[in-house]
Amino acid sequence: MNHTTKGIVLRTVKYGETSIIVSVFTELFGLQSYIVNGVRSSSKKGGAKSNLFQPAAILDMVVYHNEQKNLQRIREYRWSVLYEHVFYDVFKGSVATYMVELLTKCLKQPETNTDLFYFVEDVLMHLDRASPLVVANFPLFYAIHLTNFFGFRISDEYDEQHPYLDLQEGLFVAQAPNHHMYLEGTNSEVTAQLLKVMQPEELEQIRLPVSSRRALLQHYETYYALHVPEFGHLRSLAILQEVLG
Questions:
Q1: Structural domains present in the chain
Q2: pLDDT score recorded for residue 46
Q3: Between the N and C ends of the chain, which has fewer C-beta atoms within 10 Å?
């Protein structure tokens, strides 16, 4: 049966001479794998088709869907969003790559989650038109708010009496925990600020030195590793930190 759905491309793998297998986070079916034939030919038309399956691309698709199969097929596909900068700007491209990898590591089952889909779609479009100051803080904002959809949201209860963020529990607490997995001082305070940000444009108001952003990104990776089974490490993180300076 044919279904019309949006999809966010996560990963593409070569298959055979001219085909690819693409992992897509779809609006209707969650995480799905599709085989797409004839997109790697040397012709101009084939090259244009392959461009649509870059990670972070947002597509409109007509797909065949069979719940009994792990590999589905796409009947039709076209751009849903035409980025102006994400695929051409090294800074925004690096942030998008980080966002896609972080999402991919969190998605474990092909379950429908339209709220998550709309969140990721929205932040990618915000990233495309974001100012440099917003882009610099964008990975921090995304990492903090993505947790809302996977059951380990950090509780926004920071104050002078609760200045420590326990990464194991996802809670701001009054005293330093008996383990080393916690944030304090500026790292804890900035995390509380990020939790209150509702729209990416507000990130311009959070001014951070490069060293603080780098440290926070490492801490947030630790937080995900504590709460997502088999999370491992983010390969895009080192590149992101280098590009954003």
A1: 1-82 (2.40.50.140), 84-245 (1.20.1440.120)
A2: 52
A3: N
